[in-house]
Structures are given as structure tokens and as C-alpha cells.
Amino acid sequence: MKVILSALVASSIAALLPTYRRPQLLPSPAPTYNPIPSPTYTPQGRIYAILRSNSDIAPDGSSYQYGYETENGISVQESGNLIAAGPEGGIAASGSYQFTSPEGLPVQITYVADQNGYRAQGNVLPTPPPIPDAILRSIAYNQAHPEPQTPGRNYYRR
């Protein structure tokens, strides 16, 4: 009885729904060759020319490098080498990029990405405040005078 009731409900709902029509796909236009400078699009729709673009990959895939520069001041460079990191190989890369922020601030970032992770430095990246001298002296004192370890004593008692 439940099966018949479920089938009736499903067919009623299906009759009420509009039929699905698969959208018609338009043929893609033939690719065209655009000589250099090639366009770079921005969110505002303005087109900037690529002034310089280069890339090189070693035939054995062990290294690569690329870079480009656009008319609006964006500049990017990166190079990488194949490294062995544990059972699997990996790539160590280093590079930099720079551009001008919407506020007019020049942004310059350099980075290294390897088996030790991604490490970036730049003029707009946040940096922690310096550690106060009193804390540094306290750390040095604690390292010079460790607490003696007493067997059976719970140092983490709440």
C-alpha cells in the first residue's frame, strides 16, 4: 500500500513540474591569433597590454622559469627546481610580484616555497610586534634556571 501511495505522489508531482529542456550549446568561435601585446583584463573591464612575457621549461622537467610585465605596472617572476622531499619528489620555487594597490600603495612581495613551506616577505604583509624586553629577560632566566623535575609531582595540576 505504501509503495502504491508513494508512486501516486511521485507521478503527481512529476506532472506538475515543467519539463526539463537541455540548453542548446552554441558553437565556440574559432580561435584567433592576437599578436603581442596581448590584452590583460581587469575587473573594471579596462584592457592592459602585456609588455614582456617569457617562460622556459627544461626538457627533462627539472626546472622552469617564467615572468611577465603588464602596461599597468604588474610584474611577476618565478623559477623552480625539482627537489627530492621524502618518498615523493617536489618542486622548490622562488619568485616575486609587484603591483600598485587600488589605494595607490606599491606592493612588493618575494617568496620561497619548498619542503619547509611557503615563506613570503613584503612591504604590505603584517608583522608581529617586537617582544618586550621584560619578556625576553624572563625567557632567558627560565632557560638558565630550569625547575628540578621531582618524580611523581604533577606540574599540570588544576
From TrEMBL:
Coiled coil: none annotated. Transmembrane segments: none annotated. The keyword Signal applies. One of its GO terms (molecular function) is structural constituent of chitin-based larval cuticle. The keyword Repeat does not apply. Keywords: Cuticle, Signal. Pfam families: Chitin_bind_4. One of its GO terms (cellular component) is chitin-based extracellular matrix. Residues 1-15 form the signal peptide. PANTHER family: CUTICLE PROTEIN, CUTICULAR PROTEIN 65AU, ISOFORM A-RELATED. This is Uncharacterized protein.
